[in-house]
Amino acid sequence: MRNLLLFVVCLLAQVTTPILARAGDVAELEILGFTKDGGVFAFEEYGVQDGSGFPYANRYYIDTNDDRFLKGTPIRVRLDDETATIEAARLQARQKGEAIISQAELSANRGITAGFNSVTELSADPHRMVVNPRPIFSPVDQPLEFRLDVLGMNNTEGCESQGEINGFRLLRVEARDGGTTKLLHEDKSIPKSRGCPNGYSIGAVQTFSMGSLSAYAVLIAVRQYGFEGPDYRWIAVTGRL
Questions:
Q1: How far apart are the first and last CA of the chain?
Q2: Cα dist. 36→12, 54, 68, 127, 134 in Å?
Q3: Average pLDDT, the chain
Q4: Which is nearest to 196 in space by CA: 170, 171, 222?
Q5: Where is the signal peptide (predicted)?
Q6: pTM
Q7: pLDDT digits over 34-56, tens only?
Q8: Across residues 117-129, what is the average pLDDT?
């Protein structure tokens, strides 16, 4: 009986070890919110870097009028110490972020998470999301629909040995205009900050209103080639309504 138990333990170790070795690094997403006028959207991603084991926290502050980062951002913190904690990295990032926009203002204007799909969600369409922008029933707003197209970019410099490389295009479908589409973003090249991405999925839609809808942010999960498995990071495309 003891030998049988030892055999089962060894077998389980052999089965689970490869799974753990391919865990990769999936950054947690924290939606921070908007400024009180909806002019800026902010979010955070954080986790432990695969391979090194170093904790990190990145904060992004985006002008919703032109979909550009505010000056001095993104804020990127990585603690090059395996004994350091994610909480310590997040605290440093938050403290640096206070010089950009106060946490209190963002928290007071978080907006509405109108739709959300985790990277572990298997049943949802990763390239399309349609939401009622606000929790008002019967709805008083037109639905917001976003569609994501993957664009092959295997000629990206520095990614030649990484296999398939992709950029993306994001469209908003105008329900009131009979389904016409508006181009929100289209990669012409892949920025170095994005690494060597091979896949994308729409993760969330965050909306903001001041009496009526005024701004939105589409959170997109970016799949990259990682050290121990696929890594996921987050980017956002923002706009005004």
A1: 69
A2: 53, 34, 18, 30, 17
A3: 92
A4: 222
A5: 1-21
A6: 0.90
A7: 999 999 999 999 999 998 999 99
A8: 97
Residues near 33 by Cβ (< 8 Å), separated by ≥ 6?
41, 42, 105, 106, 107, 108, 109, 110, 111
Residue 84: partners with Cβ closer than 8 Å, 6 or more residues away: 54, 55
**Is the CB of residue 48 less than 8 Å from the CB of residue 25?**
yes
Could you tell me which residues are beta bridge partners of residue 169?
149, 186
Distance CA 241, CA 239 (A): 7
What does each C-alpha distance from 140 to 132, 173, 198, 210, 211 come to in angstroms? 9, 18, 38, 14, 12
For residues 68 and 185, what is the distance between their CA atoms, to the nearest angstrom?
Answer: 12
Residue 104 phi, psi dihedral angles, 5° rounding: -65, -40
| Residue 183: Cβ within 10 Å count | 9
Neighbours of 118 (CB within 10 A): 13
Averaged pLDDT for residues 157-167: 93
3-state secondary structure of 70: coil
Locate the domains of the chain by residue range: 23-240
Residue with tokens 């009986």: 1
